[in-house]
Amino acid sequence: MFVPRIHPRLFLAALAMGAGTAGVFLTAPPAQSLDIAAANAHPLFLILDEDAIDNGNPPNFFSEKEVNDDIADLAVRSELRFFDANPGDIIKLHSGTVGDEGWFAVKVIPDSWDAAGPTSDGLENYLGNNRIEYPHNVGPGLGTGDSPEVLLDNIPLVTPLRATGLDMLVGRRVCAVVYDGDVSINYDPLQGSLKGANLGTVSFEVLEVKELTGYSTGSLPEVTIRILNAEKFCRARFLKLFLNAPEPSSSSEPFDTVP
After folding, report:
1. Consecutive sets of 10 residues in the chain, 259 residues long: mean pLDDT of each?
2. Which of 9, 47, 96, 159 could disulfide-link to 102, CB 3.0 to 4.6 Å?
3. What is the C-alpha to C-alpha distance for residues 66 and 91, in angstroms, rounded to an integer?
4. Is residue 255 one of the residues assigned to a domain?
5. First to last CA, the chain
6. How many domains does the chain have?
7. Residue 48 backbone dihedrals phi, psi, to 5 degrees
8. How far is it, in rounded angstroms, from Cα 247 to Cα 45?
């Protein structure tokens, strides 16, 4: 005999409306959709550099103050002023060129970050606390202390995102630390340097990734985002790493520009 599956929430809702179990024929949502919803509840942690967000550059031509360039320094974690003032706005960001990317996935949190303090969570120690009342709290060696950048070089699997990786972000929320300059990448093995001044943090939802035309042949896609509240979404304990981001084999291969 076939017995229909009744999703618990829908079953309780039916009872609340006065319906009996007889005649109720409700099935659970597919497991895959539940998995996707659960994954999307956790923002991905990324790094952006000047090829994604900077003052004076297209497509937004931000002013220095809008992107915190006037306060750029080590361990800055305040939300970029334009993003803080415009939650819900939809804007476009560029993503650099092949070999000079602007978006990066961090796939490994080194043990040294865990040990740095002030907590036992390395990502929290790096990200600090960007709330207004506690604007920094970044761990020593991660932007603060006597040797403020000692733990920020040769980070394994800092992965530059080209078209395929960016396209995988559509529909996902992101929390990112924005660097004032370029993030330096070495290949074979894939490593990145996260030294340098920061502009602060941003959070957004990726809505669309499309080919960028009218620039160089190596231009990476244009990304349409909806601005979110970084204070809400940039909490280390809620973040996930973009572990399945494709890893380029060199600064030119693959020449992956079209999503």
Report:
1. 42 42 40 46 94 97 98 95 98 98 98 95 88 67 96 98 98 98 97 97 98 95 97 91 97 97
2. 96
3. 14
4. no
5. 48
6. 2
7. -120, 150
8. 16
Q: What amino acid is encoded at 101 in this protein?
A: E
Given a contact cutoff of 8 angstroms between Cβ atoms, the answer to whether 183 and 193 are in contact is yes
In three-state secondary structure terms, 254 is coil
For residue 130, the model assigns a pLDDT of: 55
User: What does the block give as tokens for 160?
Assistant: 């530059």
Residues 15, 63: one domain?
A: no
Residue numbers of the domain that contains 14 = 1-41
Q: What is the pTM of this model?
A: 0.84
Cα–Cα distance for residue pair 195/183, rounded to 1 Å? 8
CA distance 158 to 165: 13
36 and 63 in a single domain? The answer is: no
What is 144-156 written as a DSSP string? BSSSTTTTSSSEE
77 and 156 inside one domain: yes
CA-CA distance, 155 to 148, in Å (whole number)? 15
**Percent helix, percent strand, percent coil in the chain, to nearest 5:** 20, 25, 55
What amino acid is encoded at 67 in this protein?
Answer: V
Alpha helix segments (H runs only) across 43-151:
81-85, 111-116, 122-127
Measured CA angle at 105 (ends 161, 155), to 5 deg? 120
Is 91 part of a structural domain of the chain? yes
Spell out where the chain has E strands: 44-48, 90-93, 96-97, 100-101, 103-106, 155-156, 158-160, 173-179, 184-186, 191-193, 198-210, 222-228, 240-241
Characterise 231 by phi-psi region: left (phi > 0), alpha (psi -120 to 50), beta (else). alpha
In a domain? residue 259: no
